[in-house]
Amino acid sequence: MTFAGHQPPPIFNRGPAPLVRLLLFVSLCLMILVADLRFRYLEVLRQGLSVATYPLQMAAATPADFVRNASVYFATLVRVQLENADLRRKQLGSGERLLRFELLERENAQLRSLLEMSRRVGVRSIAADILYDAPDPFARKVILDRGAQQGVEPGLAVVDAAGVLGQVTRVYPIQSEVTLLTDRNQAIPVQVLRNGLRGVLFGIGQGRLEVRFVIATADIQAGDTLVTSGLDGVFVPGLPVAEIESVDRESDAFARIMCRPLAGVERSAQVLVLGRQVLPPPRPADEDAVPPAKPVAAP
Amino acid sequence: MQPTNRSSRILLPVRLWFIHFSLLIALGLVYVPTGRLPGVPDWVALVLAFWCIREPLRIGMGAGFFFGLLVDIGQGAAMGQHALAYVVLAYLANGLARRLMWFSALQQALHVLPMLLVSQALMVAVRLIAGAEFPGWSYFLSSFTGVLLWWPLTYLLLLPQYQPADRDDNRPI
Q1: Domain residue spans in chain A?
Q2: Which residues of chain B are within 8 Å of residue A25 when distances are taken between CB atoms?
Q3: I need a surface site. Which of A46, A124, A139, A293 has the fewest CB within 10 A?
């Protein structure tokens, strides 16, 4: 600011007024927020800066690791023995099922080749440990100890022994972030195991799940098991996801279907990251995805 | 500079590297994975508010913005969420700095509490608009635990400035 050609002395010069600076910074923050939340432009920036903050994060995670390991170290011998016996029993049971599974798989492959159907997609899997809950209190996410270096990619399914747990949403060099099924922004295409009815399962927060957009007269009932349908081209088909708890057909044109996840969504410690070995062919472009309806000749 | 403006004790001037060092330590504490434990104080917000009140000419919205982005990246939160909250927090703290320096630590803490709550409320508003789920009222507990730590934090962060100017003054001879 100049008055009659005089510059103010530099000791009084403190830049723009605080309110102006506040408005500048706030608008900058809002721009960043919209770019990140709405358009997902900032993943590259996030990856780049996360490399810089990584040493600090590792140093901060050390005490947590120590506490975790210490609790394992002080576990009593009796408990470990009990767990061991339990695991042996389980292994025997699943070993017997595995023997039969191999036979069935071969039989299935032969039948499919007889019927000239395409082969089922192969599955590759990465074992991982859940390190801790992600600190962001607004989402239900966990951090795994496997990342891009071990071949984890965004979009892969994460399962535990009982069913689907969530989906990998962000991958760091040696860690990855998994959004749990119960997160509010998480959706997964499913079908009813009993009759193949398809739907989409949404997380609705507070640890609950809901199947939306299934008409009220559909054949679906409490106790049905939902498995992944694989129509999304991301998940492997046939993984158990949830069990239906209640179906309310009165309220709307759509049934209100509440579900309970089968996997220990907020409890598991060891998980598998599952991906398709071969990616499905790319989707056709939007314009020619749906061919214009041809008039059907009346019979 | 005195501990408060009512005190007659003259402190050593603050070193700029110590301000940034303490903010980095606070950042490291925020990165400690505590899971869903409620009431873990937001260390960066606390230390930032402290320096914004002590040194309004050196620490302000720029530092808030920068460290906010780093917290966002470390927590996997939406980019700009903490940055926005810290910028507003720094503005409020800078604005009240002259007044707060006349108060004792307890009275300062009572002024800092609403600032922290406003910054947390901003974050909740941003994420709710973006479609996240409400984290529950216990989310705001971290402001209260943070304010409880205001007095020990003041003592700790002013400790380097309490040293005498001449090292011989408290050396046993």
Answers
A1: 122-278
A2: 61-62, 64-65, 83, 87
A3: A293
Count the Cβ atoms, other than its own, within 10 Å of residue A68: 16
The answer, for B81 touching chain A at a CB cutoff of 8 Å, is yes
pTM reported for the whole predicted model: 0.83
Q: How far is CA B99 from the centre of its chain?
A: 17
For residue A19, give how far its alpha carbon lies from the nearest alpha carbon of chain B (Å). Answer: 8
Q: At what angle do helices B105-129 and B141-148 cross, to 10 degrees?
A: 160
Number of Cα atoms under 13 Å in the Cβ half of residue A112: 11
User: For A250-260, how does the pLDDT look when each residue is reduced to its tens digit (9 = 90+)?
Assistant: 877 888 899 99
Beta bridge partners of A272: A127, A159
**pLDDT at B157 > cutoff 90:** yes
Rounded mean pLDDT of A253-270? 83
- A295: its two tokens: 């008039």
What are the E-state strand segments in chain A?
Answer: 123-133, 141-144, 157-159, 164-171, 176-180, 187-192, 198-203, 209-212, 225-228, 240-248, 256-261, 270-276
Nearest to B84 among A21, A29, A131 (CB): A29
pLDDT tens readout for residues B12-61: 899 999 999 999 999 999 998 887 788 899 999 999 999 999 999 999 99
Torsion of CA B44, A67, A162, A168, to 10 degrees: 30
Q: How far apart are CA B89 and CA B112, in angstroms?
A: 9
* DSSP label at residue B8: -
User: Alpha-carbon distance A61 to A133, whole Å?
Assistant: 12
Specify whether the CB–CB gap between A197 and A126 falls below 8 A: no
- Measured CA to CA, the distance from residue A30 to residue A294 in angstroms comes to 48
Task: Say yes or no: B74 contacts chain A, CB-CB below 8 A.
Answer: yes
The C-alpha of A202 sits at a distance from chain B's nearest C-alpha, in angstroms, of 13
Contact predicate B77/A36, CB 8 Å: no
Architecture of domain A122-278: Beta Barrel (2.40)
Q: Give the nearest partner residue to A141 out of B34, B61, B76, using CB atoms.
A: B76
For A18, name the nearest residue in chain B, comparing CA atoms only: B91
Q: Is B31 in the A-facing interface, judged by CB distances under 8 Å?
A: yes
Residues contacting B33, CB < 8 A, separation 6+: A60, A61, A64, A131, A132, A133, A135, A143
Terminal CA-to-CA distance of chain B, rounded, Å? 29
CA distance A128 to chain B (A): 18
Nearest to A143 by CA among A37, A65, A260, A235: A65
